[in-house]
Amino acid sequence: MNTFPVVSTGEDVTRQVLSDHPDLMVVAFRFGKTGAEGALHDHPHVQSTYVESGRYRFTVGDREFEVSKGDSFVVPSGARHGCVCIEPGCLVDCFTPRRDDFL
Asked: SUPFAM superfamilies from the xrefs (predicted)?
């Protein structure tokens, strides 16, 4: 049972922790409309992203690429990254170690 709150992270974007452990955290990011943004940022955690639904244009470091349902990729520790929603949906991110700032 998930008891973590849904948190707004920007216009038409929410975050909800799905599960956590000191070594790993799983988080759902939901994008409610085309053009919603996951702002460029970086963190020391390694992140894997799975596209549960929707379509997105990602920037990771100096690379830009599009992903859609079923795609996945890894963001290395310290890499500047973010996305723009092309088609509303949900991204499932895993972080290691967990993002204590999300608790």
From this structure: RmlC-like cupins
